[in-house]
């Protein structure tokens, strides 16, 4: 997709049109630090194949990846351990349940989380990252994010990580359940520490758009052409984004928008389009399923306007 197809004014207008939806949602506050976000904020970046960038809206906003980090750890775990091992500990099917649900874990035989986009599955994936210590695992993950974004300044928010770690009792229970069933190995508190830091990696819309571009572009760096994520892994990640990326709203989203996407409870939404554009959106006011209200609408507008559905 060429840069000329969309002007800055166009993008500003599309953002203004969806801004009203922020009033219908609510900022996540089950992680107390996320509750401080400005509910009216909306920002968007588009990263094009010629390296050009369009950013509009509240573009100075920085935010944490939250569940968007799940696609990044999945790619890294697949690179570290290969498909066979990863999918022996996490499934490939959508759940239709909320992202933090525990219910299917008990009924699955063998007991493994249904997919890597729900919290249980993401915790199992993070547990598979290579590294001798948590520090080393986090360092490898951050280095991978630096590669994907071409931004070595990115780190995690200590405040958000701590806030989630101190209140993550549901994720704690998922971990202990999975440890009992051999899905998770090692120390649960160490895993939660790493997982909450992974979720607290702090970015802006442009960083998000670049990651979206790389995944949409079969794993290749937009500037150098280097294969950052192997092609078959980029394909797996995109498929999960379509089937489970918006949690239990993924079906409707696929029909309305048709862009492989991943959302997070911070209000982050990443779109990976195979037509030479990466999309990063931030708007923290969420619907009851945990997806950004204005963010989903904006992605729908962009998809329809530029005919970006993959279906
Ligand atoms: N949906 C999300 O973004 C959830 C991520 C969040 N860190 C959690 O585990 O609850």
Automatic annotation (TrEMBL):
InterPro entries (UniProt xref): Beta-lactam/transpept-like, Glutaminase
UniProt catalytic activity: L-glutamine + H2O = L-glutamate + NH4(+)
Gene Ontology molecular-function annotations: glutaminase activity
Pfam families: Glutaminase (PF04960)
Positions that bind substrate: 67, 119, 164, 171, 195, 247, 265
Keywords recorded for this protein, A-Z: Acetylation, Hydrolase
EC nos: 3.5.1.2
Subunit architecture: Homotetramer.
Family affiliation: Belongs to the glutaminase family.
Protein name: Glutaminase
């Amino acid at each position: 997709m060429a840069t000329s197809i969309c002007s800055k004014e166009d993008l500003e207008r599309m953002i203004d049109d969806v801004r009203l939806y922020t009033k219908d949602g609510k900022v996540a506050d089950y992680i107390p630090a996320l509750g401080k976000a400005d509910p009216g904020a909306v920002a968007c970046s588009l990263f094009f194949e010629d390296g050009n960038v369009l950013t509009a809206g509240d573009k100075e906003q920085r935010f944490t990846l939250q569940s968007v980090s799940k696609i990044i750890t999945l790619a890294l775990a697949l690179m570290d351990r290969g498909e066979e091992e990863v999918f022996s500990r996490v499934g490939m099917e959508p759940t239709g349940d909320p992202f933090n649900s525990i219910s299917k874990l008990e009924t699955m035989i063998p007991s493994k989380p249904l997919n890597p986009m729900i919290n249980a599955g993401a915790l199992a994936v993070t547990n598979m990252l290579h590294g001798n210590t948590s520090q080393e695992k986090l360092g490898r993950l951050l280095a991978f994010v630096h590669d994907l974004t071409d931004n070595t300044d990115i780190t995690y928010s200590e405040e958000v990580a701590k806030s989630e770690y101190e209140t993550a009792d549901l994720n704690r229970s998922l971990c202990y359940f999975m440890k009992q069933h051999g899905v998770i190995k090692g120390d649960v508190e160490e895993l939660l520490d790493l997982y909450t830091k992974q979720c607290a990696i702090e970015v802006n819309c442009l960083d998000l758009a670049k990651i979206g571009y790389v995944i949409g572009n079969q794993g290749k760096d937009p500037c150098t052409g280097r294969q950052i994520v192997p092609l078959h892994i980029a394909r797996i990640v995109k498929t999960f984004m379509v089937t489970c990326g918006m949690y239990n709203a993924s079906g409707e989203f696929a029909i309305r928008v048709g862009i492989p996407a991943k959302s997070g409870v911070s209000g982050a939404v990443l779109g990976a389009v195979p037509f030479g554009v990466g999309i990063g959106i931030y708007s923290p006011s969420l619907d009851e399923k945990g997806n950004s209200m204005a963010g989903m609408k904006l992605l729908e507008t962009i998809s329809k306007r530029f005919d970006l559905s993959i279906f």
